[in-house]
Amino acid sequence: MSRPAILFVCNAGPDVGGGHVMRSLTLAEALTSAGADCAFLARPAVEAVLEVFAPGTPRSMASEPFDAVVFDHYDLSAPDHRALARGRPTLVIDDLANRPLEADLVLDAGPARLAQDYAGLTPPGAILLLGPNHAPVRPAFPALREAALARRAAAGSVKRILVSLGLTDVGGITGRVVDLLLSRPGEVALDVVLGSGAPSLPRLRAVTDPRLNLHIDTQDMPRLTLEADLAVGAGGSTSWERCILALPTLTLVLADNQVAAATALQAAGASPCLTVGTPDFDTAFKDEIDRLMADQGLRAALSTASAKVCDGGGADRVAAAFLARIAGT
Length: 329
Known about the structure:
about 40% helix; 2 domains; alpha/beta; six-stranded parallel beta sheet; seven-stranded parallel beta sheet
């Protein structure tokens, strides 16, 4: 087999965001660089993300012909995997360990994930690629790691806060957080990242506060992450990007699938976390931001612990493992 053809089957939409597609794009780029040809199964919500962030990515309207399949879709389980893959090598990207998976390889980047969590859920012999060092992260992030570590070591005051709570802005959480941050006195700049269809966007565009900087459908996340002194971020796959660049972060849990990873990062001393759905969220958020802004030693400790979480080489590791399975080695 000269260049294996790999199909990506992903989920996306207002409720789940674009994170599945974004991390799959990173893995597809690593597979392509390593000698494969990748395409995404074209569904409207997936197409919408690809059009903004990777318009040149090949699409497919059908699951044939391909040599292997990558699934990143929580609503699909073993029967769906078997029906689509039809015996071809299969990689499932997962965070839940809550359903049977028909997979030759399972990628779960959760810091607290253990092999026993998948006992009885995968076929005998399935390879488990577990932990943040398997997380697909764009090469642009590890490329800035040295500069980021030097910046964190300089340990200045907080001048820029990065707000990154998902492109789809589930429930308008971005606007709510921006309101809380702008209610604080001071001159700290806010770099707010969101998608062009985000519910908060029309209202935020009308805000005239000079501290607010909107970054819509930005492709410049590595620079924004490097230049920030503090972040408010969702507990999804962007957590690994912030860890690689050792950015002190208050993690917000926006969905059930983010609970385990956010809790593990907090237990490791890498990031405090808050659950958005709790009744006292606004008060707890203000208190936590005040604490992080005031305590340079705390930010330094979070930065040091974050940098130990992962190194950014996950996409290449996973690509090598999957191509070896496809080749039968």
